[in-house]
């Protein structure tokens, strides 16, 4: 069907609706219609009546372009049903009377703005040239503002809100009904003109709404030619829809292709409503809502049934909007709602629909409450009957004797998945459920149990604990000593002994030096033939060896080099020692365990170390044997995700006995070296990851030397000892989960 035919059917349907809605009562009569061509392509069309003109209703259509003006309670006295114009944007004027109303339809060559002005029994319709097709209907100022009557309508508020889908909502509120507002667009500016409403000084203020993140950036209301003009600055691509109800004019500016999720009262993100109806254009001024619903029914092909309580008029302007979106706008503007059954749509006030559905649901509940109860035994194969009974009753089960229990709903309490009269029991021996409820509820519970009672996948968790140790030690030192022996010296024919000559040289250097001095004097006296007393050798024992090596390598002689320098009276003994030790060790533990999804598993292996403690005083002491565990343990709870990965709640530990601590009074207590990690990690199926690691490094250097002698360059190496030691220990814990899928399993 062509667009012109659809528009014609819509106009005819509107006329028929008015014919049925209003009785044939005419308080005024249209006598004449004439036109006059103005400059610049403007056209003035004059409607003359017998009496002064009252309120009129006007709306436009874009396809085909027309302006329709309704004169309520007015008869048609114009002889010609059609007046050809053919000037400017006007093609012709048609007049028809129906149901006590007269409608004048101005056929246009193209879309054009217009203004209406009443003066006594004359109504003047001024048409713009309509050069730009994008220009929408405009209510401009009167050519003679001084003649415009004060309607008493004032702008009481200019408000802005952000919609759920990122749209901007501009709301103009008036002190009373009857404001005539129109919308037009020029580039990135929207103009809302209200010819018969004045703007108070306190409302003439600019509003910056950029922070709301909508296509609207600024609102600039101002007075113009005795009326009000609201200039709306925008940015980006957007669509507009406007409607007027009561004393409010609402303009919604929605970004094109907006995909912003709207957040409802529950806090969950919801996708915005998507519309797929055929685009329509409605431009109505104070038209009954029932008429608009009839036009929507014509465009959509649906059967719309409006309740008797659907009343009121609406001013609406929608340009190329899907019909289903236009229907939602109309319903929202008048607090209406709809319910669809096939191609029939029921429209009624929201409260009326809510009351109907509540009554229907209450009737269903009452019918269900009188239904006969049936008993059903449901066998559980994989799950636990007690857990399912708890789930069905939401914790209302009661423990019973003999390995069975039950849960029931009492009175009007919340009964979970059961009806108010239903009950459920479980038997642990046979793992079954006993359900007593209405037939429909029993079937629902059986369907639910069939989903819950399914095998679950299993997980094999393998852990590897690696403890690597490395040590290095090196020590270099020396020990030496002096020894002397007695010899015979002939002095004046007698033999004397140098008893204990140089004995204790290493520890009494001063005594040995004095003895040497006195011995020189004695030899000089003997050489000159004098009589002298031979000096006495100091009674200082000579050490055999001086050991500079530490006790670390006291028992090691594998790296010793010893030699002796023989003298006439003194022996010098020297032993050089050097030792280097290296050690490497590695301990690997490999626990593994298999468990069902979301079930904890524990595997452990180790020893209980016994030890004795003694308590009490002397004479009444008591020996007590106690035990301490040294374990290798793996504790894990796996959860298989929907993307075939495994979330592990993991605990791994490995203990070792480091030694025993002696307790005063008797007994000893074991000292345990603990290595443990507790973590939660998400791992791919079959992937190996390191869930923990500890690295320890110890380095030590010692120097031992004989004071003063050890500082002598070169020679001091014989009187010093150097020790260097380093130890490294590393702990790594590897984990690998593997999913073992079971046929028919649920996760």
What is the topology?
Elements: H1 3-21, E1 28-37, E2 43-49, E3 57-61, E4 66-71, E5 74-76, E6 82-87, E7 90-98, E8 101-108, E9 114-119, E10 122-127, E11 153-162, E12 168-174, E13 181-186, E14 189-194, E15 197-198, E16 207-208, E17 216-224, E18 227-234, E19 238-245, E20 248-255, E21 262-263, E22 269-270, E23 279-288, H2 289-300, E24 303-306, E25 313-322, H3 323-333, E26 336-341, E27 344-349, H4 350-369, E28 373-379, H5 385-393, E29 397-399, E30 404-408, E31 423-427, E32 432-438, H6 439-452, E33 458-484, E34 488-491, E35 494-497, H7 509-527, E36 546-547, E37 560-566, E38 570-589, E39 592-596, E40 601-615, E41 622-640, E42 645-662, E43 668-684, E44 689-705, E45 720-740
Parallel strand pairs: 1-5, 11-15, 24-27
Antiparallel strand pairs: 1-2, 2-10, 3-4, 4-8, 6-7, 7-8, 9-10, 11-12, 12-20, 13-14, 14-18, 16-17, 17-18, 19-20, 19-25, 21-22, 23-25, 26-27, 28-32, 29-30, 30-31, 31-32, 33-36, 33-38, 33-39, 33-45, 34-35, 37-38, 40-41, 41-42, 42-43, 44-45
Description:
The protein starts with a helix and ends in a 7-residue tail after the last strand. A hairpin with a 6-residue loop joins strand 40 and strand 41 (622-640). With 747 residues, the protein is mostly beta strands. It is elongated, with a radius of gyration of 55 Å. Helix content is 14%, strand content 50%. The strands form ten sheets. The chain has a seven-stranded mixed beta sheet. Strands 33, 36, 37, 38, 39, 44 and 45 form a seven-stranded antiparallel beta sheet that branches. A five-stranded mixed beta sheet has the order 5-1-2-10-9, with no helix packed on it. It has seven helices and 45 strands.
């Amino acid at each position: 069907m062509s667009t012109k035919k659809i528009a014609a059917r819509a106009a005819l349907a509107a006329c028929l609706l008015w014919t049925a809605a209003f009785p044939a009562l005419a308080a005024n009569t249209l006598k004449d219609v004439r036109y006059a061509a103005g400059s610049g392509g403007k056209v003035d069309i004059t409607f003359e009546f017998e009496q002064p003109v009252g309120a009129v209703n006007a709306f436009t259509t874009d396809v085909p372009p027309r302006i329709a003006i309704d004169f309520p309670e007015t008869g048609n006295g114009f002889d010609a049903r059609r007046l050809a114009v053919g000037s400017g944007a006007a093609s012709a004027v048609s007049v028809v009377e129906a149901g006590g109303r007269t409608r004048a339809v101005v056929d246009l060559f193209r879309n054009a703005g217009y203004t209406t002005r009443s003066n006594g029994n004359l109504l003047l319709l001024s048409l713009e040239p309509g050069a730009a097709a994008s220009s929408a209907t405009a209510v401009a100022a009167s050519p003679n503002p001084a003649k415009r009557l004060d309607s008493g309508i004032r702008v009481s508020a200019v408000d802005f809100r952000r919609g759920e889908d990122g749209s901007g909502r501009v709301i103009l509120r008036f002190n009373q009904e009857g404001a005539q507002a129109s919308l037009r667009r020029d580039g990135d500016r929207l103009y809302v003109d209200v010819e018969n409403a004045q703007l108070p000084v306190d409302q003439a203020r600019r509003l910056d709404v950029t922070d709301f993140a909508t296509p609207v950036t600024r609102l600039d209301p101002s007075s113009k030619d005795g009326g009000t003009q609201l200039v709306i600055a925008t940015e980006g691509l957007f669509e507009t829809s406007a409607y007027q109800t009561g004393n409010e004019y609402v303009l919604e500016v929605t970004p094109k292709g907006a995909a912003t999720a709207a957040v409802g009262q529950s806090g969950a993100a919801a996708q915005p409503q998507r519309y797929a109806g055929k685009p329509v254009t409605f431009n109505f001024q104070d038209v009954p809502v029932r008429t608009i619903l009839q036009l929507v029914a014509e465009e959509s092909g649906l059967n719309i049934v409006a309740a008797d309580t659907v009343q009121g008029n609406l001013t609406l302007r929608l340009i190329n909007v899907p019909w289903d979106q236009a229907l939602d706008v109309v319903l929202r503007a008048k607090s209406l709602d709809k319910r669809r059954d096939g191609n029939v749509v029921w429209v009624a006030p929201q409260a009326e629909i809510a009351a109907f559905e509540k009554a229907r649901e209450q009737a269903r509940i009452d019918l269900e409450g009188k239904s006969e109860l049936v008993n059903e035994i449901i066998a559980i194969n994989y799950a636990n009957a007690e857990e399912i009974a708890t789930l069905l009753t939401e914790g209302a089960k009661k423990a019973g004797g003999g390995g069975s229990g039950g849960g029931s709903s009492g009175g009007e309490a919340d009964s979970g998945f059961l009806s108010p009269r239903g009950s459920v029991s479980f038997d642990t021996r046979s793992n079954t459920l006993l359900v007593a409820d209405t037939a429909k509820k029993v079937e629902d519970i059986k369907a639910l149990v069939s989903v819950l009672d399914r095998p679950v996948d299993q997980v094999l968790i393998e852990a590897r604990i690696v403890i690597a140790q490395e040590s290095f030690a090196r020590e270099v030192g020396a020990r030496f000593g002096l020894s002397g022996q007695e010899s015979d010296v002939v002095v004046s024919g007698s033999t004397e002994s140098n008893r204990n000559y140089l004995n204790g040289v290493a520890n009494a250097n001063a005594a040995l030096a004095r003895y040497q001095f006195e011995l020189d004097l004695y030899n000089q006296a003997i050489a000159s033939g004098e009589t002298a007393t031979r000096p006495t050798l100091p009674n200082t024992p000579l050490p055999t060896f001086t050991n500079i090596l530490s006790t670390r390598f006291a028992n090691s002689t594998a790296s010793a080099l010893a030699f002796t320098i023989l003298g006439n009276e003194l022996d010098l003994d020297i032993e050089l020692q050097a030792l280097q030790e290296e050690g490497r060790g590695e301990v690997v533990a490999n626990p593994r365990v298999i468990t069902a999804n979301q079930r904890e598993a524990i595997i452990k292996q180790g020893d209980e170390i016994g030890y004795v403690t003694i308590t009490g005083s002397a004479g009444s002491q008591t020996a007590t044997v106690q035990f301490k565990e040294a374990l290798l343990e793996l504790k894990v709870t796996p959860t298989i995700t929907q993307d075939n990965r495994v979330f592990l709640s993991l605990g791994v530990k490995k203990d070792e006995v480091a030694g025993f601590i002696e307790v005063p009074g008797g007994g000893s207590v074991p000292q345990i070296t603990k290595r443990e990690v507790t973590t939660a990690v998400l791992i791919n199926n079959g992937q190996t990851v390191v869930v923990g690691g500890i690295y320890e490094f110890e380095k030590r250097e010692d120097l031992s030397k004989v004071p003063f002698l050890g500082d002598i360059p070169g020679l001091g190496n014989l009187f010093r000892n150097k020790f260097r030691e380093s130890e490294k220990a590393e702990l790594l814990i590897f984990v690998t989960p593997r999913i073992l899928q079971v046929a028919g399993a649920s996760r």
